[in-house]
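1st attempt posting a full record on here, be nice pls
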Amino acid sequence: MPVPELTRAELRRYARPLLVAEWSEAGAQEKVKAASVLIVGAGGLGGAVITQLAGAGVGQLIIADGDTVSLSNLHRQILFDTADVGKFKAEVACARAQRINPFVKVKAAPQLTLENAPGLVGQVNLVVDATDNFETRYLIADTCHDAGKTYVWGAAGGTTGLVTVFNEHYGLRQVFPEPAGAESCDAIGVLGPLPNVIGNVMAGEALKVLSGVGETLFGRLWMFDALSASVRVVRLNPPPRATTV
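the predicted structure (as tokens):
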């Protein structure tokens, strides 16, 4: 990707991350500015991801979600408030992201389908799977496999959450061949802070992938238990190939 220079206004806005030696020495802020990310899902997970990536200065965010804001989801979906109930999540999320950071280009997209997935995935550097159903998750996995794209994956339900990074060589189908036992938040519920914790970790992984700074969770599964505040990281088998953006 061609790496653009930061303007004076951007240097002021990103002054704090630019103080982090690993970030500034790698030219990470410029790389993030040059990047485009497709975020599929603007709910609990997606809201945290959108907030963080907009604030971080990712050049372009495409937000795909065909659902509307629901009152019963406001306890965890931090992008929305009561006045947004009934509005399309993607449109509200884009407006919120633009208010967070006017330097970021944002675009709303409809629900991901077999027809539009290749076009949406093909125009970005990275995909973030912030959905809550396995039909869409497998669609993302298959499309990223065909397009040679890396994607950040996360899940949250009840009191537990998971995060990892996949690519075209090693993805969701290799780890979870079947969605056995997988249920949405509508079925099992979720504590409000949990998706935001998981979404923030996902955003951190996205920034590492885009910038090349640090070690991503590729080949490892990060597991969080909110009731005990315990974290486990397990290695995934078979060993996947190295990831690239």
